[in-house]
Design goal:
The chain is of the alpha+beta class. The protein has a single domain, classed as Roll (Pnp Oxidase, Chain A), CATH 2.30.110.10. A hairpin with a 5-residue loop joins β2 and β3. The model has no long low-confidence stretch (mean pLDDT 97). The structure holds flavin mononucleotide (FMN). The site of flavin mononucleotide (FMN) has 17 residues, from β3, β5 and α2.
């Protein structure tokens, strides 16, 4: 057995646990989520608590914490108000733009402008999408699940329409990871890009 440090969750300092968890469950993909409020004002913010829940009927989640001052982040409030979100997969090309859009600003600030990216109309939802994004998923909110005892809520969303930059597709229908060049989140303010990509066949 390896020498280890034990963290019992009850009674532990939540900030210390957050540091350990955020740097242990890595690398996390980054979803750039656009949405609109009930008046149609657009919003754009990155979230690394995001992943697939189902692929046969494509479903994913995005988990949002509360705002520092209390209350819901705009992404959650908009998902609730409109029942729609758009998720973009963040690549290396968009690293700095994504980071600029993570500033906690008032809902009237246009985060597309703040990030310096062009917004274009989506195909099936009202929220605009990032014109230059490598992969975009337009989605309808299935449900919003408050995480018991936590300030987080999970937005569970069903994909309605995907847009994939055409040069990313391989002949056998996958997205080429070396061309996608996804950005991923580590603990603290650290990020990573793809390391070695290698095949491994599953045992039958
Ligand atoms: C790379 C990155 C990942 C983030 N992941 C999350 C996340 O998973 N959940 C969350 O609540 N906030 C996350 N944040 C912080 C939000 O982006 C930030 O609070 C943002 O202002 C929320 O915007 P909104 O109020 O417009 O929704 C992340 C920030 C960065 C830079």
């Amino acid at each position: 057995m390896v020498d280890s440090i034990r963290f019992d969750v009850p009674g532990s300092d939540p900030r210390a646990l957050t540091k350990v968890l955020m740097s242990a469950v890595v690398p996390r993909p980054i979803g750039w989520i656009s949405s609109v409020d009930a008046d149609g004002t657009p919003n754009l913010a990155p979230f690394s608590f995001l992943n697939l829940l189902a692929s046969d009927v494509p479903t994913f989640y995005v988990a949002t914490a509360g705002r520092r001052g209390g209350g819901a982040k705009d992404t959650l409030a908009n998902a609730r108000a409109t029942g729609e979100i758009v998720a973009h997969i963040v690549d290396e090309l968009h690293a700095e733009a994504m980071n600029r859009s993570s500033a906690e600003v008032t809902p009237d600030i246009d985060e597309f402008a703040l990030a310096g990216v062009r917004a274009v109309l989506s195909s099936v939802v009202r929220a605009p999408r990032v014109a230059s994004a490598a992969v975009t998923i337009e989605a309808r909110v299935l449900s919003i699940l408050p995480i018991e005892g936590s300030a987080y809520s999970a937005i569970i969303a069903r994909a309605l329409c995907l847009h994939v930059r055409s040069d990313l597709m391989t002949a056998d229908g996958f997205i080429d990871p070396n061309r996608l060049r996804p950005l991923a989140r580590l603990g603290s303010d650290l990020y990573t890009t793809l390391g070695r990509v290698f095949p491994m066949t599953r045992p039958s």
